[in-house]
Amino acid sequence: MRTLSIYIHIPFCVKKCRYCDFLSFPAREEEQRRYVQALLTEIRTEAGKYADCIVDSVFIGGGTPSVLPMELSEEIMACLKSLFRFSGTPETGGREPEITAEINPGTVDKEKLERYKRAGINRISIGTQSVHDRELAYLGRIHKAEDFFRTYRMVREAGFTNINVDLMAALPGQTLDSYADNLERIVRLEPSHISAYSLIIEEGTPFYEIYGEGSGGEGSSGEEAVLPLPTEEEEREMDMFTESFLRERGYYRYEISNYALPGMECRHNIGYWTRRNYVGFGLGAASMADNVRWKNLTDMEQYMQRILSGCGTVQEHVVQLSRQEQMEEFMFLGLRLTEGVTRQAFRDTFGSDPEEIYGKALHKLCGQGLLETGESIRLTSLGRDVSNYVMAEFLF
């Protein structure tokens, strides 16, 4: 039996944040309901292709999935359970599936969380990004720090023990001390998992107008005081502090931006980095199965029309990966993990040792102190700082 991961995309949010380039937007409840009906139709249409698979993880992401009326979330979960075989049953055996829902503070209450749990969701990922009100306001978040702490308490009270908290570093106006305070206050809550990543200024976002190339460092309004971005050295100090501080408190870094208590790694995301089969449903959702990659339409009206009229697929950019492309992905995705890429796994997959394929790149990067090799090939601390450069060396 093949294992399969499922991603469900909910593109709705209360308000677009200033740094966000995700496929998300505010929508009225009527539009949300119409979208979910289309989403359910897509799932029912495609599910038969995966009849021989056992689902090991589900990730409901966005956007902000928790903005949906609860009955719509319950419909989605009921649909998945009726059409797919999940791990952890008497028939399939194995461990119970990991089923994650992303939420934002200010979009859930105790009843919604309890209904999430009854629906089968067993992991919650809370997007806070900061616990300083000034930073939250500048990011354009809809919540304040107290909203996050209240939400976290409710998640615990609802019975969830597998909880991730998202935290951002290198924010405008942020110092190492203010970032460290963010991290310390989150760790006191003892989440099982922390995603800690640096702000990236993405083209097409309000922050790009302020901080992007040629912006001149001025906001589009010209009125708001522009907070400076931390320097590259300050950003590196934040990253080094994160690793050492969390290690002392029992969290280990298993991926470039992710830390977990032992045994609490995000199973779904590890599937992406190790190239396990996954299928995405919903607007713009990406998939990879049997070395074929594709992505759904990103235009809402086209997506809705195609599905609700029954006039064709919503999949586009379908690519059958060549052997070389599979090798590239195996390396640059696997190197995101702290344990790196094992030579045996590469040999088992491709019938060759990495040295035979990438000997020149490995010699060069090891000589630069960016990789270390043995039975596994992994990034050094210096290599993580320039990981994009390292991974580009594995492209043919």
Task: Please give a structural write-up.
The protein contains 15 helices and 16 strands. With 396 residues, the protein is α/β, with parallel strands linked by helices. Helix 1 links the parallel strand 1 (2-10) and strand 2. The model has no long low-confidence stretch (mean pLDDT 95).
Termini Cα gap: 33 Å
Structural class: alpha/beta
Characterize the largest beta sheet: strand count, sense, and whether it forms a barrel: 10 strands, mixed
Helix count, per DSSP? 15
Rg over CA atoms: 22 Å
Shape: globular
Percentage of residues in helical conformation: 40-55%
The proportion of strand residues reads: 15-25%
Chain-averaged pLDDT: 95
Uncertain residue ranges: none
Tell how many strands the DSSP assignment holds: 16
Topology diagram in text:
Layout: E1 2-10, H1 29-46, E2 53-62, H2 70-83, E3 85-86, E4 98-103, H3 110-119, E5 123-129, H4 133-139, H5 145-157, E6 163-169, H6 176-187, E7 193-198, H7 206-211, H8 232-248, E8 252-255, E9 258-260, H9 267-273, E10 278-281, E11 286-289, E12 292-296, H10 300-309, E13 315-320, H11 323-334, E14 341-342, H12 343-350, H13 354-367, E15 371-373, E16 376-379, H14 381-385, H15 387-392
Parallel strand pairs: 1-2, 1-10, 2-3, 2-4, 4-5, 5-6, 6-7
Antiparallel strand pairs: 7-9, 8-9, 11-12, 12-13, 14-16, 15-16
Helix pairs in contact: 1-2, 1-10, 2-3, 6-8
